[in-house]
Fold:
Amino acid sequence: MSEENEKTKCLILGSGPAGYTAAIYAARADLHPVLYQGLQPGGQLTITTDVENYPGYPEGVKGPDMMTDFQKQAERFGTDVRFGLATSVDLSKRPFRVVIDDKKELLAETLIIATGATAKWLGLESEQKFNGFGVSACATCDGFFYRGQDVAVVGGGDTACEEASYLSKLCRKVYLIHRRDELRASKAMQHRVEKSENIEIIWNHVPKEIVGDKTVNGVLIENVNTGEISRLDVEGFFVAIGHKPNSDIFRGKLEMNDNGYIITRPGSVRTSIPGVFAAGDVQDHIYRQAVTAAGTGCMAAIEAERFLSDQ
Ligand code: NDP
Structure:
């Protein structure tokens, strides 16, 4: 089948801010990029409500609307945007072979991986029910909506501590719910939490149910030692139990850290394989912002163009 041998100069995987920004730059550089949207077209911003921290939108913008605009802008310059998920790759030689949906194979001279990360959820039914209506996995994105209110954060790692400290500056009270009696977070983060007078750590507890009417007004928590259930009155519930980078198909093929984040060279988006670039949350566990993802998407396209002109 001729379809199996389709060739592209620049293949982009992922349709969040990193993928679409890479597409805008690559298309404007005449690389005729092909972009596969992946499992969640538009990425993580399509499951948030208002985005108020992306520069250029003084009144804020709905996450899904912003991603539609990103897509339109990428298409305006000729990006071929397609539905589909990359299911396997062969990066051992160029052109790279990428299989989409287990059937279609593409040959790519350069590959930009912008597959993002997925927030881990507790798996409670009520968590999904109130997602976007009091439940969030991103304090920097949504904390502002809970100014002066009481909120809870669940988790005991750096993310949970960072989210709790961020929220403590906006909210009246922050409960940090952790399932053990010690935090996993770095000492520096722990100190920051301890120093915040309005953060209360609820040790040895796990959330059992998030309750509310249209929006959240409380969380039922269980003491893991006694089984006792109690209630915290909160308007916001932040899940901060870690993210999982969407990098499974690159395992063993690209350098990654222990958590599966693709390692890029310092100050660049180059991976361990020349011609393969990684942008956005799949290579960034620290900032994880739309604007930083877009920035690295831009870098990836510029690097891809330079790589091709050096060949
Ligand atoms: P971590 O995996 O470090 O921590 C996850 C936390 O969530 C743990 O405390 C864990 O509990 C808890 N947890 C996991 N699953 C559940 C569950 N089902 N129910 C209740 N609690 C649960 O993830 P992070 O996102 O915090 O950090 C990931 C990596 O990113 C780390 O290497 C971290 O250092 C780094 N990071 C660095 C930052 C920085 O440098 N500024 C900021 C944020 C992250 P338990 O402890 O019992 O396992």
Observations:
- The longest helix spans residues 290-310.
- The chain has a mean pLDDT of 95.
